[in-house]
Amino acid sequence: MSNKTLTSEVDPNIEALRKFIRSSITEQVSFDLCMDPEETKEAETLMNEAELLLQQHATSTDDYKLYHKYSNDSIAYYKKRGNTLIFKFNHKIKYPGKYNYIISMLWNSNAKYVGDKIVKEKVARAYSPNLMMIQQRYKNDAISFHGYYYALAKKVQVSDDTTIIVYASSDVNDYNSVDKKKYTNTIVESANLFKPKIYSENDIRNGELTKMFVNLSGFIIQKKKDCVDITYLNSININTTIFEDLLIRIINLSQILTIKR
Questions:
Q1: CA-only gyration radius of the chain, Å
Q2: Could you write out the three-class secondary structure of the chain?
Q3: Beta strand pairing status for 210-223 and 145-159?
Q4: Is the pLDDT of residue 63 over 90?
Q5: Are the CB atoms for 13 and 126 separated by under 8 Å?
Q6: Which of 11-20, 108-117, 132-141, 153-162 has the lowest mean pLDDT?
Q7: How many percent of the chain have pLDDT more than 90?
Q8: What are the CA-CA distances from residue 132 to residues 32, 126, 148, 222, 243 (Å)?
Q9: How far apart are CA 21 and CA 1, in angstroms?
Q10: Rounded to whole angstroms, how far apart are CA atoms 55 and 187?
Q11: By its UniProt entry, which InterPro entries does this protein fall under (predicted)?
């Protein structure tokens, strides 16, 4: 078989992933490329469920209570689903031309600084350019907290004017020698069957960071005639009894401030 024939048979999804890898190498980003088709399929199934659940919880008004009204264009809500707290934030940005920029800002890995709070994100494993496992670290010096989580992340272009970004954690084996707790996703049930292994950094392996767990999180970004309409949803567990409610509020507030910038 000739090289020309081989080239013509390249899967377009594989070629897109190669381009993503090349650009990531240029930016000096390091991560695992998943070569296991079964793990990739399981990740896709999990995140298809997460995407549907995000849409359900984000568009529903049932059981939500007002958390804080920042303005007529920025309103936060919350609700309890059993013992699970779900936070929702609706925000309008009056510059429809910033639609693509907002998507890029929310999706691309980077470091965010909000006062004395630092959020760092990186790709831990790539399944495709729009499906990956991320590691996010959260540091708040004011309350001496340094935490992290792993979550699958997916980006979907629903239409020319609507994009969804969704996150969900599973019970990842990250070789944390201190936190051996079994985590259960209380919203995305298929996440509890997905148990990949991630070779974490030494500080995680040594238990120096507090483990967090994302039941469901994400954004629905819509381009309207006069604005970009963003709905942010977040439900997260933190493996600490100290300041847990406060930490969840601070983490949510950090994301709100990122969106409002």
A1: 19
A2: CCHHHHHHCCCHHHHHHHHHHHHHHHCCCCCEECCCHHHHHHHHHHHHHHHHHHHHHHHCCCCCEEEEEEECCEEEEEEEECCEEEEEEEEEECCHHHHHHHHHHHHCCCEEEECCEEEEEEEEEEEECCEEEEEEEEEEHHHCEEEEEEEEEEEEEEECCEEEEEEECCCCECCCCCCCCCCCCCCCHHHHHCCCECCCCHHHHCCCCEEEEEEEEEEEEEECCCCEEEEEEEEEEECCCCCHHHHHHHHHHHHHHHHHC
A3: parallel
A4: yes
A5: no
A6: 11-20
A7: 54
A8: 10, 4, 16, 23, 30
A9: 27
A10: 13
A11: PYST_A (IPR006486)
Residue recorded with tokens 């793990």 = 39
The answer to whether the beta carbons of residues 64 and 88 sit under 8 Å apart is yes
* Angle formed by the axes of helices 99-107 and 244-260, nearest 10°: 140
What's the full length of the chain, in residues? 261
- Domains in the chain, ordered, with CATH? 3-260 (3.30.530.20)
pLDDT 10s digits, 124-152: 999 999 999 999 998 888 778 889 999 99
Split at pLDDT 50, 70, 90, the class of 120 is: confident
